[in-house]
Design a protein that fits this description.
elongated
C-alpha cells in the first residue's frame, strides 16, 4: 500500500516537474507565515481529533469492563 502511494506521488511529481513553466513571482514573508499558521492549525486539529477519539474508545472499554465486573459480583 505504501509503495503504491509512493509510486503515485513520485509519478505526479515528475509530471509536474516536466510540464511546468517558469514563473517569476514574489512570495511575501507574511504569506509564508499564513501558510505556517494554516499547517500548524491543521496539525493541531488532527492530533486533537485523534486524541478525543482515543479517549472515547478507552472510556467505552472501561465502562464495558466495569459492567462485566459488576455482573460477576
Amino acid at each position: 500500500m505504501i509503495k503504491k502511494i509512493i509510486k503515485i506521488l513520485s509519478t505526479c511529481s515528475l509530471v509536474i516537474a516536466f510540464f511546468s513553466k517558469e514563473c517569476y513571482g514574489y512570495l511575501d514573508p507574511s504569506a509564508m507565515t499564513y501558510l505556517i499558521q494554516i499547517l500548524v492549525a491543521i496539525g493541531i486539529t488532527i492530533t486533537t481529533s485523534i486524541g478525543i477519539l482515543l479517549y472515547k474508545i478507552k472510556k467505552a472499554f472501561r465502562r464495558k469492563k466495569e459492567k462485566s465486573l459488576d455482573d460477576s459480583k
